[in-house]
Amino acid sequence: MSDKIRLFYYVLWIAQPVLGTGIAVAMLRRGQRRQFKYFFFYIVAQILTFAVVFPLRRNYSAFFYASWISTAIMAALGFKVIHEAFLDAFRPFHTLRDLGTVLFKWAGLVMLLVAGVVSVSTNTLDTAPWVQAILTAQRCVRIIQVGMVLFLLFFARYLGVKWRQYSFGVALGFGCFAMIELSLVASWVGEHLNNLSVVLINMAAYNCTLMIWLVYSWAKSPIREAPANLLRPQRWEQSLTDIHHPLPADSLIPMFEGMVDRALSRTQASPSIPHGNVAAPEVAAAHAAGASASGRLDVFGLSGGVASKK
Predict the structure, then answer these.
(1) Quick one: 88 and 228 in the same domain?
(2) What is the Rg, in whole angstroms, of the alpha carbon atoms belonging to the chain?
(3) How far apart are the C-alpha atoms of 125 and 128, rounded to whole Å?
(4) Which of 20, 70, 123, 194 has the fewest CB atoms within 10 Å, i.e. the most exposed one?
(5) Where are the beta strands (DSSP E) in the chain?
(6) Shared-domain flag, residues 13 and 143
(7) Residues 279 and 186 in one domain
(8) Contact status, residue 184 vs residue 202, Cβ threshold 8 Å
(9) Tens-place pLDDT, residues 284-298
(10) What 3-state DSSP class applies to 152?
(11) b vs e for 203-213, b when ≥16 Cβ sit within 10 Å of the residue's Cβ?
């Protein structure tokens, strides 16, 4: 490595904690630490990682283990940050948010299983199994981050999420960096780029991601659109609620029974008719007809009224 490249390398490396400190300060001043606590922990962990790893750069063994341990921690926190951005996007819709939480748990479990299988099945002498497991888990997290940013790009208008909102900026930064890193990995495997080029481009891409987060941290986040105006996600929410909490099959029976009882009680309670206005044979016939056909209208009461008028 030449002196100019080494200087460029250290500038890119030292710029990361500087930009991270600006993001952390902005989150503290604007009150975003409580709403995005895992993202705040991620930024703080990056700063602490630099404080630990940078002094160990001349001790290869200590630098190696510290770097890979920090990579594993960052992969876990990165997964939680994407989950946090997902929850913020579905904040007005509780059922959709619960479904997303279940899907993220299963994605995390599958990611760990894939990492374990890959680490066990790898028999290369150049890479230790636990290092291979960390690499696989990190790439799985990158794929999930790309999927998250694509999801927000396609469904932001349905959820009332605007591109200037903080959660969108967090997902955008992770997604762009993940796409660049996965492309670099593919280029390195295909021997299109050497190790030094991959490292420098990756560090420059991450610094650009930090600058995106810094801009979103200091910018004013707009108010989300009211959930009442979002008809399509409301239908999704209602459909999932009906599936999760189905109504019992006999839930309408008591209501119909009450309606029938009230109708019968009104029908059977015929108005009182003076005996002087209707003849005895007519009254007997009316009572007989009412007893033989319960639940019908008392037409004889009407006929009695007509007879009395005559």
Answers:
(1) yes
(2) 36
(3) 7
(4) 123
(5) none
(6) yes
(7) no
(8) yes
(9) 444 444 444 444 444
(10) helix
(11) bebbbebbebb
